[in-house]
Every structure is written in C-alpha cells, then in structure tokens.
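Bit of a strange request maybe. I'm writing a small parser for structure token strings and I need a real example to test against, not something I typed by hand. Could someone generate the tokens for this chain?
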Amino acid sequence: MNFDAITIRDIARELNLSVSTVSKALRDSYEISEKTKKLVLEYARENNYRPNPMAQSLKKGHSKSIGIVVSSIDNQFFSQVINGIESQAYSQGYNVIITQSHESYDLEVQNVNHLTQWAIDGLLISLSTETNNVEHLKKLQDQGLHIVFFDRISNVIDTHKVIVDNFKGAYDATRHLLDSGYRHIAHITSSATTSVTNERLAGYQQALSESGLAMDENYIKYCQQGALNLNEIEQAVDELLALAIKPDAIFTAWDRITTSTLSTLHKLDVKIPEEIALIGFTNTLLADILNPSLSSVHQPAFEIGRKATEMLLSLINSKRPVTEFETIILPTELLIRNSSVKPVL
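Reply from user aminoacidic:
Good idea to test on real output. This should exercise your parser:
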C-alpha cells in the first residue's frame, strides 16, 4: 500500500476553494477570512497535511539539504564522521542524505547523480578507492554545485578539504614499532591511487629511512577494495607469513584493514605481539577490550565531519563567489596498547 500525502490541491478540491486561497489560509494571510482559515486548518489537521519542505525550499532557491558520499557507513570511522556532519548540519537547519559507494567508482558516480536530482545545496564526499577520474565532480562544480572533500581528497578540484595528518600518523606508528625493537615491519594498505594511501606510505617510509632501513616492496601489500573484501586481507597476511624473513610487526593503514588483520592473525593462531606486533589506523570503540588490546592511530572523525560541514555551509551561504580555499589538516593521536608492546623475555 502506497502512502499518498495530501497536498494543497487536494484540500482545495475537497473544500471547493482555489489553490491560492488554501495556500494563503495555511500561511495565516490577512487576505483570508477567519472562517475560511478555520475551515482549511481543521481539514488539514484531520487529514494529516504536512507542508512539503522540498517544494517550499526550492521556491526560495535552496533545498536546505546536503548530500554525503562515503565508502561504507558500517566503518566506525565514517559513522563517526557522519555524526559530526549531522551535528553541524542539523544545528543550521539542514538535512543530510547519505549514500555509500562501497569503494566503487561507478556507484559513486551514480550516487552523486542521484543526489543532484534531489536538488541538494552542496556535497560532502570521500572518494572511493577506485576513483582516479573526478570529471563527474568537476562538471557539477562548474555548474555551481558546492563540493567539499574530506579524508580521501582530489587535488584536481579547487575547493575546501578536511583531512588528518596522514604522514605523521603513519610516521608515529612506525617510529613506535622501531623504538620498540621491531625491524621487519610490513605495511598493509589500500589502493595506491588514493591520497590517504600515499601519504601514510610516505610516513612509514620516512620512519624506516631515519632508522637506516630500506623499504622492502615485499613487505608492502595493497588491498584494492580497502578491506571490504576480507579475502584480500587474508591473502596479504598469507603472503607476508610465507616470506623467507617473516615480518615481526605489521602497520596497517586503514580502519577496516586493521581490525580485519587482527582477526586474520587470530584465525592463523599467530600470537600477538609475541610473534607479530600490530598497530594501525582505526577508530573502533572496541580497541581497549580486544585480545590483545589494539594499538592504534586514532583520527578525530567527528571533528572532520563537523568541520567539513561548517566549510560547506560557508560556501552555500556566501553572498559572493568564493575563490580562495583552505585545506584543514587535523592531528592524529597515537594510542599504545598491548598489540605492539614487545614482550619482555
């Protein structure tokens, strides 16, 4: 059974009034008699009439809605980002429409096109791991759509961006492993095409270089779907364990990759950290109670979402064209727990 919301035209037809009269009565216009206002308001209340906010806002030239594209909302990082987006958007009277790319370029394009059909005022997007071409976004920006990137960004499009200090977060994690005595440190990351992957890889490499260690390509494993495919993680771990010199530590670069690597090592009965230490980017709320507790690089996900939304709304509400843009880089936090602490012999 479909729900058909009652419209102003329905009310006008039932009460034998003009659409204009009903509209004015609902707005409490002085042009309409009290008797007619009462008749219209009672009928509207009894039949559960609700104004169409989309139609109303479009008359004013804006929808009071913003679109969001993330890879997956069941990722703790992105769910926390969305909380930040919603807190800022709702406080300013904006609604949000959330879509998921599931790391697919085609689905990202489809989602963006769908969102624009809803006449959104602006778009917040974290690119999929498959996205190397952002022409679909450039075209929309050229047509006047306000876009702000967060987390995974593109340098092709000139706009506001909100990221974390990926280089330093990776450097700090790798430096911690090195300072703890680990020397064969592997790195499991996502698609080599994303900004996040390259920045974190650079931080990992810098820490090794400062310790006089060359980066071994055999220790670098790329997971093209960013851990949405668990088989990729399992294969990466299997290949690392099959090396002549197995890693004594693993640094993982993405949220889901970190927790999936921990799970995979447990399945293989690899003792953590006795056989292999583990540290990685993750915002999981369970890090403290996992076995062992999981060392992690924590990102200020809520603040990323809040700040990105603040910047998008500033573009939407600006009275003049904005030509100068800013990239906000927020700090990460290294949280040392049992998974990366070298056992005392």
